Amino acid sequence: MSMDDPRRLAAFHEAGHAVVAQYCGRLAKGGLTIEPKRDFLGMTEILDVLPFEPPSALLDWACCGLAGEVAECVLFEQSPPTSRTLVQARLGGVPDVLHVLTRLHTRYADPVGMLRGLYDRTHKLVRELWPKVEAVAELALERGKLSRDEVRGAVGAAGSEAAKTDAVCERRARI
To answer: What is the rounded distance in angstroms from the CA atom of residue 50 to the CA atom of residue 37?
Structure first.
């Protein structure tokens, strides 16, 4: 596949976010879209982390955020970025990752190491889930937009994955 097809690239990028978010229990009802809006070629709705959730939820959320670019690396068989590239890309202009680092600073003395670990974890997940990423990307190309339930159907989400997302949504609704 060439990088010349922005819609196809957006489909795989958003599918990476959506499949990892579903796996981690963080895919919101809005699902994903590859219909361009403003400055974005696509978007996946991921549940934010609330203060009462454990630190592991923050790590899951960060992996969901990295999964789009990781899916692009897998798609184009590119090497993972170096720690220096990660820091420049992530700390240079992505406030969400800075937010994660700020909330986890007491647990991780080495932010570069933490980013490397997050990337490695995300890369492993995306590779393991790659057939599901491909299925969601193809369906997104067909339909343009997928709800959370359509993503679940495309990936054949296990009951525990679906229940995890439902539990997070239920806790959020009570607040």
So the answer is: 27
Closest listed residue to residue 165, CA positions, set 68, 54, 21: 21
Architecture in CATH for domain 6-174: Up-down Bundle (1.20)
Give the residue extent of every domain in the chain. 6-174
3-state secondary structure at position 97: helix
Q: Calculate the CA dihedral of residues 131, 136, 137, 141 and round it to 10 degrees.
A: 140
Segment 80-135, tens digit of pLDDT? 665 555 544 544 444 455 555 555 555 556 767 777 788 889 999 999 999 999 99
3-class DSSP assignment, residue 29: strand
| pLDDT tens readout for residues 148-170 | 999 999 888 654 555 555 555 55
- Strands 145-146 and 43-46, sheet pairing: unpaired
